[in-house]
Design brief:
This protein is mainly alpha-helical. Helix content is about 95%, strand content about 0%. It is built from two helices and no strands. The protein is rod-shaped and about 210 Å long.
């Protein structure tokens, strides 16, 4: 290769190397500026997020304490809760038994009340029948002598009328009228 060409190639290579070094320096400077901006933004974000992180840490700590207390309370009260649940089941069973017994007693009382009502109804019916019989007997006992007395009075009246008329027989008109009244 001739020396002139070699020098030109080396000169172009040096220019290219210098250009790439300048380009790398520009890119490096741009990266540096971007890093500074990112650092500034990161600092701002850190300043804003740091209180939130502290609050989150406090919340997690209090939640952890709360969960621990809850677990402790549950563990402490587990036998009591179990005992209460057992007692509640026993109470429900006893209440169910009592309700069944009360239902049976009500059914029995209802049956007895119905039987007693039937008995009272029969007694009242029998009493009414006896009162009717006594009423009929009293009516017959009172009316029979009254009818007999009425018959005697009617006979005496007829005898007195006949005696007052002098023993004359009634006219057929008068007799017909008395017979019509009788009928």
């Amino acid at each position: 290769m001739p020396e002139d060409v070699f020098r030109w190639v080396v000169a172009v290579a040096v220019v290219l190397a210098a250009g790439s070094a300048i380009a790398q320096a520009v890119i490096l400077f741009a990266v540096y500026k971007a890093a500074k901006e990112a650092q500034k933004i990161g600092t701002d974000v850190k300043a804003k997020v740091e209180p939130l992180v502290k609050q989150a840490e406090a919340f997690v700590a209090s939640a952890s304490t709360l969960v621990g207390n809850g677990n402790r309370i549950v563990e402490e009260n587990r036998p009591r809760v179990s005992s209460i649940a057992t007692d509640a089941v026993k109470i429900m069973d006893a209440a169910r038994q009592h309700a069944d017994r009360i239902g049976e007693l009500i059914d029995e009382a209802n049956g007895r009340a119905k039987a007693r009502i039937v008995q009272i109804d029969e007694t009242v019916g029998h009493a009414v029948d006896q009162v009717e019989q006594a009423s009929d007997a009293l009516k017959n006992a009172v009316l029979k002598p009254v009818k007999e007395v009425n018959g005697l009075v009617a006979g005496m009246k007829a005898a007195l009328n006949t005696y007052a008329q002098g023993g004359n027989r009634n006219s057929p008109d008068h007799t017909t009228q008395d017979e019509e009244m009788f009928i």
